Amino acid sequence: MKLKKLTALGLTLALSASLLAGCSNSTPGGATNTPAPSGSQSGGETTGETIKVAAIETSYGTEVWQQVADAFTEQTGIQVELTVDKKLEDVIGPAMQGGEYPDVIHLATGREAGLTEQFIKDHNIAEITDVLSMTVPGEDVTVGEKIIPGFVNDSSITNPYADGKTYLAPMFYSPCGLFYNKGLFEEKGWEVPTTWDEMWELGDKAAAEDISLFTYPTTGYFDAFFYALMYEAGGEDFFFDATHYAEGIWDTDAAKLAFDTVAKLATYTNPITPAQANDQDFTQNQQLVLDNKALFMPNGTWIVGEMAEAPRAEGFEWGMTALPALTEGGDRYSYTFFEQMWIPAGAEHVDAAKQFIAFMYSDTAANLFAAAGAAQPVTGIVDQLSGDNQIFYGIYDDGAKAALGSFASYKSVAGLGTVREVFFDPVNSLVSGSMTEQEWIDSIKAASDQMRANIQ
């Protein structure tokens, strides 16, 4: 099924009514392995079954996961052994290599370790299409009826094999864009650019005051950035062909426009960025914006909670904008990022795991996560919005279009890297000057030939 068949208008309207937490790892702390209390729980039948749930620790912390696990046990009687860690891959990886898998894993694609992508490539994820028709535990509505339209149907992020089946459940989501200090713009009397030509003019003006135009937390954040840019460069058809590695796609005018924009932006990027663009030091790049050492960075709405305790310049105030248009009057896009939850094919308790995923869309779970700053893609979540999130999610009301989708999954091939390694990691080298734009393009072309031949 083609990604470009998504109902963009319906999705855009739905997205303007939502909220999210994030993909980055910032909350301090280690793993929590806390089994839920045993025994009969009111509201649910004791089954004697225990499932293992492993979740990445992000800006909304660990406590909310235990609250949701306890609520699930109370409703179903199924016990939960919970592991939450900001380096989840390191915690669960060794056991999985030995054949012991969690029953449920909450871990998004696009991370440096690429664990979720590896499971997708190896077809080691259980199909969960039937979860969409399951009744949400404790409610009289199905999961499919609760999920905002557009988050499952035809999306390569949840249906990676284009076989009409769902393998990854959409979880916390956020509009992504360029974040900046509104206070600085007001102080300087600067306007937020609406075109890339205006962006370059502002970059020159800021450089005269020793301020870089741009930074990024890690190259992983270029996925949302580049997807939105591809939509701007060539529209829906180009995005579909590019993300499916169509032959000759990287020689088109649209591709050149996208490549040229990233390459030029690299010359306007704070030079310290590549050294800090890793999963340990990425907050130091984010700090560049808070310290007025860089104007813009790509990110999602979770950034506010993630940097809540960080020092900042006097008068700092978060702002967010869609990518500038490539041409005067052209479309502007904001990518919609969402995390995924999935069941390893080797999980021991698949049926109970599916119940847990179904419960994640309950009002109980959604309200608990919303209180912690995270949003499920469920209808009615707009009622939980407040403060900055009202402004951030208004990006679609202000004329930005929603971009959704990702590069198609491909089989594991010796020597062929992940999408991040092929497309986005080289941005570090573009910034440092150790790679030219043409070398980047040539490497993408070579990798795309292999990706296309091995597409799932």
TrEMBL record:
<dbReference type="Pfam" id="PF01547">
    <property type="entry name" value="SBP_bac_1"/>
</dbReference>
<dbReference type="GO" id="GO:0030313">
    <property type="term" value="C:cell envelope"/>
</dbReference>
<dbReference type="InterPro" id="IPR022387">
    <property type="entry name" value="Bind_CPR0540"/>
</dbReference>
<feature type="signal peptide">
    <location>
        <begin position="1"/>
        <end position="21"/>
    </location>
</feature>
<keyword id="KW-0732">Signal</keyword>
<keyword id="KW-0813">Transport</keyword>
<feature type="compositionally biased region" description="Polar residues">
    <location>
        <begin position="27"/>
        <end position="37"/>
    </location>
</feature>
<protein>
    <submittedName>
        <fullName>Carbohydrate ABC transporter, carbohydrate-binding protein</fullName>
    </submittedName>
</protein>
<comment type="similarity">
    <text>Belongs to the bacterial solute-binding protein 1 family.</text>
</comment>
<dbReference type="InterPro" id="IPR006059">
    <property type="entry name" value="SBP"/>
</dbReference>
<dbReference type="InterPro" id="IPR050490">
    <property type="entry name" value="Bact_solute-bd_prot1"/>
</dbReference>
<feature type="region of interest" description="Disordered">
    <location>
        <begin position="27"/>
        <end position="46"/>
    </location>
</feature>
